[in-house]
Amino acid sequence: MAKQVEIDRDECMGCEACVELCPDIFEFDSDEVKAIVIKPEGGDEKCIDDAIASCPAGCITYE
Question: In a structure prediction context, what are the per-residue pLDDT tens digits for the chain, which is 63 residues long?
Fold first, then answer.
């Protein structure tokens, strides 16, 4: 099975760090005030790794 990008939306703080780093993969849901994954199949792995490292809630996975 291919790797998938996921956000634990219960843990997301809405800081938008992932959205700023990887706008092709993440988007901000202003209604929920949380990030969402718009490209779960991923893309630039360095970008995803940077988003994971920058997430203060530690709620992004790529497995």
Answer: 689 999 999 999 999 999 999 999 999 999 999 999 999 999 999 999 999 999 999 999 999
Q: Considering only CA atoms, which of 3, 8, 1, 43 is closest in space to residue 22?
A: 43
Six token digits for residue 57 = 């809630």
SS3 5: strand
Task: Read off the amino acid at residue 6.
Answer: E
Burial class (CB within 10 angstroms; exposed 0-12, middle 13-18, buried 19+) of 46: exposed
